[in-house]
Amino acid sequence: MKQLPVVMSIAGSDNSAGAGIQADLKTFGALGTYGVTALTCVVAEVPGKVTAIQPLDPGLVVEQASLLLEAFPVRAMKTGMLCSGPIAERVADFVQQNRAIPLVVDPVMVATSGDPLLAADAIRVYRERLFPAATVVTPNLDEVAALLGRPVSSLEGMRLAGRELVDRYRVPFLVKGGHLRGVEAVDLLVDGEGESEFRGPYVAGVSTHGTGCTYSAAITAGLGRGLGLREAVAEAKAYVGRAIGGYLRWSKNGRETDALDHFA
């Protein structure tokens, strides 16, 4: 008999399998955990293009998650795309009732293509209920700008933003700096004890999507295996770097489509 640590993703579906639930499941498997899922919405997308988003009934979202906890010893969980205010509210109820389980909150607000992925009423739920329940929150710089109402365009700006977010919500924040597009991609983990930098090479010329989903899923897998937060982030950073560096590419109809290699 074999057992793996069980981890859960509460997130949307990406039919192109580069982001969302599909990316989470691949990441969970690659990092030695068994992934289970509660689906929030169905998204019609390919890298660089979103054409439709269909939310599920909020009650069904939580029914999936609750049933999983009855059957599996879930060791950690993450939230990804929650899509609507009513779904976010019900998911917030669920995580509040299960505060003993480590929680990674990926505040999925904007797609890599620039398309909005989160309704305005859901942002309030993140601020008031989900962030305070998190073990760590993992915004990219676009999401940080949305949360603070100002752009962040430097490492020093990331430091200031991280401190402000931690002061405001009293939980650790991983501010992801890949959008700065320097020689290195620098991420900053800020908590009540200070700051830790996580560095990796910036890979230019690759148009992948789903890096945020993959990163937060990798942190969730690490927490589910019993790693501390800094160790889980360090492992996740290295994993995402391998997935980007070993990217996949296809050509069709004069268009190139890239994807992360979750098993690189």
Quickly describe the structure.
The protein is of the alpha/beta class and 264 residues long. The protein is built from 8 helices and 11 strands.
Characterise the protein shown here.
The protein is an alpha/beta fold and 264 residues long. It has one domain (6-259): UDP-N-acetylmuramoyl-L-alanine:D-glutamate ligase (3-Layer(aba) Sandwich). It is 39% helix and 27% strand. It contains eight helices and eleven strands. It has helices at residues 20-30, 58-71, 85-97, 120-130, 141-148, 155-169, 211-224, 229-245, and strands at 6-14, 34-46, 49-55, 74-79, 103-105, 136-137, 173-176, 184-191, 194-201, 248-252, 255-259. The strands form three sheets. The chain has a six-stranded mixed beta sheet, sandwiched between helices. Strand 7 and strand 8 (184-191) form a beta hairpin. Helix 1 (20-30) crosses helix 7 and helix 7 (211-224) packs across helix 8.
Looking at the structure, the CATH topology is UDP-N-acetylmuramoyl-L-alanine:D-glutamate ligase
Which overall shape is indicated by the principal axes computed on the Cα atoms? globular
Number of domains: 1
Helix content: 25-40%
Gyration radius, rounded = 17 Å
Question: Ends: how far apart?
Answer: 28 Å
Q: Biggest sheet, in brief?
A: 6 strands, mixed
The helix tally amounts to 8
Which structural class best describes the helix and strand composition?
A: alpha/beta
The parts where pLDDT drops under 50 for at least 5 residues are none
User: What is the residue-averaged pLDDT?
Assistant: 93
Order of secondary-structure elements: EHEEHEHEHEHHEEEHHEE
The total of beta strands comes to 11
Secondary-structure arrangement, i.e. CATH architecture: 3-Layer(aba) Sandwich
Strand residues, percent: 25-35%
- CATH class assignment: Alpha Beta
CATH superfamily: Ribokinase
